[in-house]
Automatic annotation (TrEMBL):
Organism: [Eubacterium] siraeum DSM 15702
Record's protein name: Uncharacterized protein
Recorded superkingdom: Bacteria
Pfam families: 2-thiour_desulf (PF04463)
InterPro entries named in the record: 2-thiour_desulf
Length: 152
């Protein structure tokens, strides 16, 4: 397996950057090995887009990202998505592991925008930008698939 870099959501890396000031570290042994080897490039599109921690919960609805308080956060999410893409290119990452369900980083599922804890098929804005640029994006629940993709 080559020593290629992997773009990862900051909360999976262990940063306290979630909207609620929490983290959701990925504890898969292979993920921790990549972290130890210095192969992970962490990014929090929301913080890098200018949003504070903690911040109001946001959900994606169509092309917009709205906060639970009714504010439009699309501009910050777009800025963060562009920063995630810039980091991926700058670090020549092989692929990305992003936090499932997030309005930025969800790769297969996101919340539906109603703030009723309803999860739907979809992708976060940063993931959309990364995929449109040709990057393969996986969730933290797909480490085995990541291992196979890196072996190719």
């Amino acid at each position: 397996m080559s020593e290629k870099k992997i773009l990862v959501s900051g909360c999976l890396f262990g940063w306290h950057c979630r909207y609620d000031d929490g983290d959701t570290p990925c504890l898969h042994p292979q993920f921790l090995k990549w972290k130890e080897e210095g192969r992970l490039i962490p990014v929090c599109p929301e913080v890098f887009g200018g949003l504070p921690t903690p911040r109001p919960d946001c959900q994606r609805t169509g092309d917009k990202v709205m906060s639970c308080a009714g504010g439009d956060c699309t501009e910050q999410y777009t800025k963060g998505a562009n920063e995630a893409l810039r980091l991926a290119k700058e670090n020549d990452v092989a692929l990305c592991i992003m936090k499932e369900d997030s309005p930025s980083c969800g790769s297969t599922h996101i919340y539906d925008g109603t703030f009723t804890d309803t999860i739907i098929e979809g992708q976060g804005l940063a993931v959309e930008y990364l995929r449109n640029a040709g990057y393969k994006v996986f969730s933290e629940n797909m480490i085995e698939e990541v291992i196979k993709a890196l072996a190719k």
